[in-house]
Specification:
69% of the residues lie in helices and 6% in strands. The chain is mainly alpha-helical and 64 residues long.
Length: 64
Amino acid sequence: MAKCEKCGARKRRRPRSCPRCRSESADRAETAVDAAELAAELGLLGWIGRGLMTVVRLVLRTIG
């Protein structure tokens, strides 16, 4: 029997991943969704930050 390269568990065929690693693929999908949501939130915060910096620059130009 071959060993899984990821976790070291025994598996039947060489090119396929073991049952333990295959069951983790659902967890990976959930993690990917969470990461995408976080990136979207951070992207929005980045736009807000850029907008505030633009306002600050305009105020400083007006005062100066």
